[in-house]
Amino acid sequence: MPANFTSGWLGNGERAWHGMGVVTEGTLPAREAFETADALFTVEKRELFFPNVNALGPATGEPLWFPSNSFGLVRTDTQDLLGVVSKQYEIVQNESLLRMAEFIREEVDMDTVVVLSDGGKVCFTATLRGATQDIVRGDTVKRRIVGFLGHDGKTGCGAMFTNIRVVCTNTLAAAMSTKDAKVSIRHKTGANDNFDQLIQSIDTARETFNNEVELFRHFADTPIQQGDFRELLERVYASEIPEGKQIDDLRKYPKLRRAYTGGLGAREFAPYTMWSAVNAITEVETSTQIGTRAQQRRQFARANFGTGLLTSKRAIQEAEAMLSLV
Fold it and tell me: Average pLDDT over the chain, rounded to whole?
């Protein structure tokens, strides 16, 4: 399965990059979305045993089996082993994640529900109503809430606020890399009693979103010259420029220039501004709409597993720093 996608529902007619899942026009109520995604399975904790080769059965001569003091998390409908945990681990069932989605139904529109790694992770994405704005006409950003729940023994449960639409393991990792506006709960005693905490940051997330929108609009209202674009590139890629070399010597430099002058939306949305400069870097580092299918897959992994995502964020930070000096 690409990106560990097992099953899922994707709304608003927007297919995922991997082409999998049930796609519908518009949104769905939370329960129907979870049911369509096959995301309401249950999980059990079962004790694991191991054979001791130093303790043989007197009748069979075969190793005897002993309790390991570890427990397997088993998906009850498929009997898949999803993770190994301790006795203290408290399971949070998928119904709890659904309850969270239903609790905030007046605040959001459901976007996706996905099951990853055979059920090791389940998450939903929903767009906050009133948190969708144009930076310039037709160039829209959205604030989303992602609820997540792990059954792999490593991932906790919680919610985060992000601009990312989660459709696979990679996009979930990208969303979870954000430290701000996130609530995370460990699978320990009381985990099922703490889900109300997951919606407490909604107003704060809206405020953060509005602040980001104002910054991006400031970018769009700030014309820049070629020298400014070059300075931004030098700031963003400082660690990649070899000693004694210049930004022109980077292999990606021609791609960055092309993206700035004629890339995706470059001529439609605030051309030759700080906004188009930041978008040019983001396109080169993260876009999966260019190149061959194989290149798109490699780009997607790069964008969401590390360097591409970090470079895109650094572009915003350096652009903001440049504006503060004006």
Answer: 79
